[in-house]
Amino acid sequence: MRKFLVTLLSLVLFVFSFGEKKLYVGTNAEFKPYEYLEGDKIVGFDIELMEAMAKEMGYTVKWNNMTFDGLLPALQMGKVDAVIAGMSPTAERMKAVDFGKPYLNFQMGHAVIVREDEKEIVKKEDLNGKKAGAQLGTKQEDLAKGFGAEIVRYDSFTGALLALKQNKIQAVVLDEEAAGKYLKTMSGLKITDVIYDNDPGESVAVKKGNTKLLEEFNNAFDKVVESGKYNELLKKYFSEKEIKEN
Question: In the beta sheet, which residues pair with residue 37?
Answer without folding.
Answer: 42
